[in-house]
């Protein structure tokens, strides 16, 4: 799928804005605060239905002082047919979001399964240097975009761990061991869900690791889990996770919380050269390259699994790279042949592109 155009009304700084898009390379050019990230955000909203920045809310997308926002696009599907996609946000007491496909009400889940985007942002270096929870979020969003049912699994897992922690506190406060069997019941369900999430995360991590290795040679990604560390080679069954959880009940009661589980896992980027985490040894430019390639690996994984080409939205991320790296990363990004939207504040970047691109000046 690709977007033939995009029109926005009352979206962030724009009252009205419309532009045609090319099926291949698009380059948005404009100074700071002209609305480049906003356009990228509007396009990605069609597939994620949430703002780019994790702490922004839907209501922040509506132009300040207005009560509604509309994003519209003509989407060309894989068979070459044109579809009209309209997303509207209405601010009453709460925000109401609606999506229409060819004038008929549709669901966010349906559209997300048809239209895939991958966004490349300046803050992507957090993939390398950020917290485990940041990487877990990236990994889980990827898993959910391929296996939507995993959203429910993840929500249920989180809820059960929370309830188990409450129960642990209750047992400690009451000094009664009556509820220990209930902890075991929680462990049984938690280990089932943990195993499902674990398998999908490991599958994605292995793919991204291979993707990086093929391009950089000495960088890989390791799925880090305290379940694995505790079980060594014996981690690959629900039963073994359950036994691990059960055998640590006493320890958990001493420390007052769940100690093992996939809610503590991480996807660590490793420098094979230094045999340590990349964040500790690599330069800013190297970290930038890795974070771009992780995102590109994510796009490639989504395509392989779903057969859908991802629209690549690339927001001014080449700044830290020298000319040679700019060229090689750009070549890598362009080699997908996917619809791509770049944003730059300077037209200096145009010389890096060969031909066949559409410039959108704002
Ligand atoms: N809800 C909103 N209503 C009105 N204006 C907004 C809203 N949200 C953001 N803005 C403004 O929109 C402007 C454009 O922001 P945007 O991030 O798209 O710029 P940009 O072109 O990407 O700039 P930069 O080159 O600095 O990254 C900013 O000045 C911002 O304050
Ligand atoms: Mg910007």
Written description of the protein model:
The protein has 362 residues and is of the alpha/beta class. The chain has 2 domains: 2-116 and 308-361, Rossmann fold, CATH 3.40.50; 132-278, Up-down Bundle (Glutathione S-transferase Yfyf (Class Pi), Chain A, domain 2). Helices cover 46% and strands 23% of the residues. It has helices spanning 36-48, 58-61, 108-114, 126-129, 132-146, 150-174, 180-216, 226-231, 238-247, 249-255, 278-281, 284-306, 323-334, and strands at 2-3, 5-11, 14-20, 25-29, 68-76, 82-91, 95-101, 104-106, 117-120, 219-224, 266-271, 276-277, 311-315, 340-344, 357-361. Strands 1, 2, 3, 5, 6, 7 and 8 form a 7-stranded antiparallel sheet that branches. Helix 5 crosses helix 7 (180-216), helix 6 packs across helix 7 and helix 7 (180-216) packs across helix 12 (284-306). The longest helix has 37 residues, at 180-216. The chain is globular, with a radius of gyration of 23 Å. The two termini are 25 Å apart. The model has no long low-confidence stretch (mean pLDDT 93). Bound molecules: adenosine-5'-triphosphate (ATP) and magnesium ion (MG). Adenosine-5'-triphosphate is lined by residues 12-13, 30, 32-38, 60, 62-64, 345.
């Amino acid at each position: 799928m690709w977007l033939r155009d995009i029109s926005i009304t009352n979206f962030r700084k724009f009252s009205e804005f419309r532009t045609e898009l090319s099926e291949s390379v698009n380059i948005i050019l404009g100074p700071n605060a002209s609305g480049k990230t906003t356009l990228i955000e509007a396009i990605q909203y069609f597939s994620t239905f949430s703002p780019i920045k994790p702490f922004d809310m839907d209501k922040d997308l509506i132009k300040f002082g207005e009560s509604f926002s509309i994003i519209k696009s003509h989407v060309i599907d894989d068979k070459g047919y044109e579809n009209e996609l309209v997303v509207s946000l209405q601010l009453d007491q709460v925000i109401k979001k609606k999506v229409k496909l060819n004038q008929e009400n549709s669901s966010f889940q349906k559209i997300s399964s048809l239209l895939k985007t991958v966004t490349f942002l300046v803050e992507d270096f957090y993939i390398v240097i950020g917290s485990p929870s940041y990487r877990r979020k990236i990994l889980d969003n990827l898993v959910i975009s391929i296996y939507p049912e995993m959203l429910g699994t993840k929500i249920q897992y989180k809820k059960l761990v929370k309830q188990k922690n409450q129960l642990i506190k209750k047992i400690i406060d009451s000094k009664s061991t009556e509820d220990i069997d209930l902890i075991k019941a929680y462990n049984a369900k938690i280990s089932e869900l943990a195993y499902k999430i674990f398998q999908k995360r490991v599958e994605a991590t292995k793919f991204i690791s291979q993707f990086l290795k093929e391009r950089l040679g000495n960088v890989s990604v390791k799925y880090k889990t305290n379940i694995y560390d505790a079980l060594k080679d014996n981690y690959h069954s629900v039963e073994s996770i359950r036994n691990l959880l059960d055998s640590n009940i006493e320890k958990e009661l001493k420390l007052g919380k769940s100690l093992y589980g996939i809610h503590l896992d991480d996807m660590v980027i490793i420098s094979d050269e230094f045999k340590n985490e990349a964040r500790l040894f690599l330069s800013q430019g190297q970290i930038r390259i890795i974070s771009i390639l992780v995102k590109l690996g994510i796009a490639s994984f989504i395509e392989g699994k779903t057969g859908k080409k991802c629209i690549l939205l690339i927001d001014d991320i080449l700044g830290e790279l020298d000319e040679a790296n700019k060229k090689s990363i750009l070549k890598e990004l362009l080699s997908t042949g996917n619809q791509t939207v770049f944003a730059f504040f300077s037209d200096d970047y145009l010389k890096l592109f060969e031909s066949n691109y559409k410039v959108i000046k704002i």
